[in-house]
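Thread: Newbie trying to understand structure tokens

Hi all, I'm a second-year student working on a class project, and my supervisor (Dr. K.) asked me to get a predicted structure for one chain before our next meeting. I've only ever worked with sequences, so writing a 3D structure as a token string is new to me. If someone could post the tokens and maybe explain what I'm looking at, I'd be very grateful. Here's the chain:
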Amino acid sequence: MRNIKRKTNRLKVKRLAKLKKRLTRKVGTPRC
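---
Reply by user tm_fold:
Sure, no problem. This is what the structure looks like when written as tokens:
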């Protein structure tokens, strides 16, 4: 169960990172 949770967490983080990159690109102002 713990392994699965970790995997899902990693996927979520990756997805968030992708969304953040897209948002920063659209706006033009990089947000760390």
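A couple of things are worth pointing out once you decode it. The first helix runs from residue 2 to 27. The mean pLDDT is 75. Feel free to ask follow-ups in this thread.
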